[in-house]
């Protein structure tokens, strides 16, 4: 079974349009883009722009260039964040390679009540302790990192409660591995984490009922190693020759599992929809 991310995203957008009409102004989302974006980043920014236009969110891209050091970049980002009037702010990942190891130093610059991506260390701590949100003007606002929110939406579509399930996360990145691990642990799943170089990956795959991949490497999941009741959420992205691909050869693997997300049309659309849902929640708490 192929999971239709476009259909799930559209359900979210239909609800957001109604919420936005009740607000005194349009919600605002600002994306801070550091350096020259890679091809996949440009694609994702365009998708966010189109989705914002479709539901009625003001979307602005702020390009951060002309820095020569980590200290200079921190200062440029801090200035951009402090001067922003947006309800939600994101720093578009990945950062240029010299700054990727210091990513949390940059992410934590975003105030908690504007952090629409929920990717900073404080959010991982919140999720692991069961505190899934912020308080704005005395109002609790429930938020979730967008890829973790997409995972939740797909499991809900399948009527699967992750509590007690064995889950395997392949990849330990900021966008997929870390937030999805924290969310699954919060929901009571037994979580195994494998790096993409894991030598015993087949053994772990054979145990997993829920599999989330986020490596950007094709062909890591083998059809013969999978449980027939497994659900695979493929959040990996690569773009050879400008074409967006996931981690998994869906046509090869799909007949051997209960459900799987295709790429494109799977995790990506729902991730963008959950991001916009976070922005609307942040705006509503400020404006109502």
From TrEMBL:
The positions annotated for binding NADP(+) are 171-173, 237
Q: Where in this chain does the record put each Tetrahydrofolate dehydrogenase/cyclohydrolase catalytic domain?
A: 3-117
Lineage at the top is: Bacteria, Candidatus Terryibacteriota
**Segments traversing the membrane:** none
Give a GO biological-process term.
methionine biosynthetic process
**Originating organism:** Candidatus Terrybacteria bacterium RIFCSPHIGHO2_01_FULL_48_17
Q: Does the keyword Oxidoreductase apply?
A: yes
Q: Which reaction does it catalyse?
A: (6R)-5,10-methylene-5,6,7,8-tetrahydrofolate + NADP(+) = (6R)-5,10-methenyltetrahydrofolate + NADPH; (6R)-5,10-methenyltetrahydrofolate + H2O = (6R)-10-formyltetrahydrofolate + H(+)
The family assignment reads: Belongs to the tetrahydrofolate dehydrogenase/cyclohydrolase family.
Which SUPFAM superfamilies does the record cross-reference, listed alphabetically?
Answer: Aminoacid dehydrogenase-like, N-terminal domain, NAD(P)-binding Rossmann-fold domains
Protein name in UniProt:
Bifunctional protein FolD
Domain Tetrahydrofolate dehydrogenase/cyclohydrolase NAD(P)-binding: residue ranges? 148-285
């Amino acid at each position: 079974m192929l999971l239709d991310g476009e259909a799930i995203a559209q359900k979210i957008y239909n609800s957001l349009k109604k919420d936005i009409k009740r607000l005194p102004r349009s919600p605002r989302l600002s994306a801070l883009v550091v350096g020259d974006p890679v091809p996949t980043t440009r694609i994702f920014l365009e998708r966010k722009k189109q989705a914002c236009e479709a539901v009625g969110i003001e979307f602005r891209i702020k390009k951060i260039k002309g820095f020569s050091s980590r200290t200079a970049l921190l200062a440029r980002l801090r200035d951009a964040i402090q001067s922003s009037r947006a309800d939600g702010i994101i720093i578009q990942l990945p950062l240029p390679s010299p700054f990727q190891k210091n990513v949390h130093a940059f992410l934590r610059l975003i105030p908690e009540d504007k952090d629409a991506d929920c990717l900073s260390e404080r959010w991982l701590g919140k999720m692991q302790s069961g505190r899934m949100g912020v308080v704005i003007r005395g109002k609790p606002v429930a938020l979730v990192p967008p890829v973790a929110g997409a995972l939740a939406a797909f499991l809900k579509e399948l009527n699967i409660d992750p509590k007690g399930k064995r889950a395997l996360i392949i990849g330990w990145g900021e966008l997929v591995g870390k937030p999805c691990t924290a969310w699954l642990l919060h929901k009571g799943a037994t979580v195994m984490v494998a790096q993409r170089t894991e030598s015993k990956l087949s053994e772990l795959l054979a145990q997993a009922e829920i599999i989330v991949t986020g490596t950007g490497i094709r062909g890591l999941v083998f059809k013969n190693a999978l449980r027939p009741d497994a659900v695979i959420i493929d959040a990996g992205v690569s773009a050879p020759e400008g074409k967006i691909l996931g981690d998994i050869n869906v046509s090869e693997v799909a007949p051997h599992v209960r459900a799987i997300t295709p790429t494109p049309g799977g995790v990506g659309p729902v991730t963008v929809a959950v991001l916009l849902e976070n922005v609307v929640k942040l705006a509503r708490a400020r404006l109502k």
